[in-house]
Specification:
An eight-stranded mixed beta barrel has the order 1-2-3-4-5-6-7-8, surrounded by four helices. It is α/β, with parallel strands linked by helices and about 450 residues long. The chain is built from 21 helices and eight strands. It has helices spanning about 40-55, 70, 90-95, 100-105, 120-125, 140-155, 165-175, 185-190, 200-210, 220-225, 230-240, 255-270, 285-300, 310-320, 320-325, 330-335, 340-350, 355-365, 370-380, 385-415, 420-425, and strands at about 5-10, 15-25, 60-65, 85-90, 110-115, 130-135, 160, 180. The N and C termini lie far apart (about 55 Å). The protein has two domains: about 5-190, EAL domain (TIM Barrel, Alpha-Beta Barrel); about 190-439, no CATH class. Helix 9 (about 200-210) crosses helix 20 and helix 18 (about 355-365) runs antiparallel to helix 19.
């Protein structure tokens, strides 16, 4: 049985990441939680979760839907109570042992959410056990949603609006008083875009630490820059500028570092430290770009028909979020980066053969089950491998982010909590700044 498993972000009113929901689906659009499939699905899901439980969680709470058989198999106990919210749907509510099942897990400290709450006696009967009420803003009428949000507030329940795909739905959810928001529009929404490139502070901090070592590791510098769309964009834009007057433009991070040289690289980083507003890019968006990059690159292992390399697939996935980070059109953004025409067609216009891979990555992110299968079949990627590839990439992103945070914390302790980037870099790289001030 082929399944797709994806996680979607849940955000608060300020756009901060609150948690993730893990979504499961069988192939060819059949419902994973269909009663006829529940026995087989329970075994399959339990095995997958047991093998991947450490890959699923980050430092945020995770929402996951459990069927009656998953609850009977004690599948939630794979995870710690503080990490997990058990979601239930109608197939649990109508089960004769529903109350018993829920009470058992409540006593052990698990929290509960209910999907698509309805005005029916069976739902009201479980109200005292619920912590979250989730409402589908993609299919329900505004009047019904308003009444349910009021009901949730009267019972002191936290309300999560999901299925939000448009600005109009998002505005309605905020107007009605929803506490948290979920959907593709929410995942991609950034309150304000930067007038110039945003940089993830912790990634930037680690880059500062690496380049100021007595013997900087060029390979490590390349890795740090390559996992950050904004830093990669800034580096390639500068190296391909008129200042360097390269005979052949480059889209390679390694070649850019060779061209720039360590001294110029230090100066570039020093200039970045003077970024006026001191606000860095949305961590959620940049993490998503890193995940897309890894996912696209790993999927290329199973395809030999596209006219791009694995490294180019990585760049395509990473640059796919640039429209959310920079206040400019994609056409304008990619004027400064000499990516191949195939990548440009995919990123800007969603056309050409490479767009198939990009659209597969984006459909997976949206949990667009049918199109995932369609694109995978066209590309010859085995559908039974995709979920595992995805969560291996999730684990890699989580591991890298933990490393970034550790480096930032350790460096802060060594240099003092009030130390600035400029103080850490030191005076040794300030010489010659005037020489590149016009870059």
């Amino acid at each position: 049985m082929n399944k797709y498993v994806v996680r979607q972000p849940i955000k608060d009113k300020q756009g901060n990441l609150f948690g993730y929901e893990i979504l499961f689906q069988e192939e060819r659009g059949s419902g994973l939680y269909n009663q006829t499939n529940d026995y087989a699905a329970a075994d399959s899901i339990s095995n997958f979760l047991a093998q991947n439980n450490t890959k699923i969680f980050s430092d945020k709470i995770t929402f996951m839907t459990f069927t009656p058989n998953l609850l009977f198999k004690n599948t939630p106990k794979i995870f710690k109570q503080n990490d997990l919210v058990i979601q239930i749907e109608d197939n649990v509510i109508v089960h004769p042992l529903a109350t018993t099942l829920i009470q058992r897990f409540r006593k052990e400290g698990y929290k509960f959410a209910i999907n698509d709450f309805q005005f029916a006696p069976r739902y009201f009967g479980l109200m005292e056990y619920l912590d979250y009420i989730k409402l589908d803003f993609g299919k329900n009428e505004a009047v019904s949603l308003e009444n349910t949000v009021k009901l949730a507030k009267n019972f002191n329940k936290i309300c999560i609006a999901y299925g939000i795909e448009t600005q109009k739905q998002y505005d309605l959810a905020k107007q009605l008083g929803a506490d948290y928001f979920q959907g593709q529009y929410v995942a991609e929404k950034v309150e304000t875009k930067a007038n110039k490139t945003d940089y993830l502070q912790s990634n930037f901090f680690q880059l500062v630490v690496e380049v100021t070592k007595d013997e900087p590791d060029v390979e490590m510098i390349e890795q740090i820059i390559s996992r950050d769309a904004a830093l990669t964009y800034g580096l390639l834009k500068m190296v391909n500028s008129v200042y360097f007057a390269l005979r052949n433009r480059t889209s390679s991070i390694r070649q850019a570092l060779v061209t720039l040289g360590l001294g110029q690289l230090k100066q570039w980083i020093y200039l970045l430290s003077f970024k006026g507003d001191k606000e860095f890019g949305s961590e959620d968006v940049l993490k998503r770009s890193f995940l897309r990059a890894n996912f696209a690159a790993e999927l290329m292992e199973y395809n030999n028909t596209l006219p791009i390399s694995k490294n180019e697939a990585y760049l395509m996935g990473m640059f796919s979020t640039m429209g959310s980070l920079i206040d400019a059109t994609l056409e304008e953004i990619f004027e400064d980066i000499p990516i191949s025409e195939e990548l440009k067609q995919a990123l800007v216009y969603h056309k050409g053969p490479c767009s198939l891979l990009l659209d597969l990555v984006l459909c997976y992110e949206r949990a667009d089950w049918q199109n995932i299968t369609n694109y995978a079949d066209i590309l010859g990627i085995p559908t039974n491998m995709i979920a595992q590839i995805y969560f291996n990439c999730v684990e890699e992103v989580n591991r890298i982010w933990e490393t970034i945070q550790d480096v930032e914390n350790e460096s802060g302790q060594e240099n003092g909590q009030d130390g600035t980037i400029e103080e850490i870099i030191g005076d040794s790289i300030s010489d010659g700044i005037d020489d590149i001030s016009d870059i």
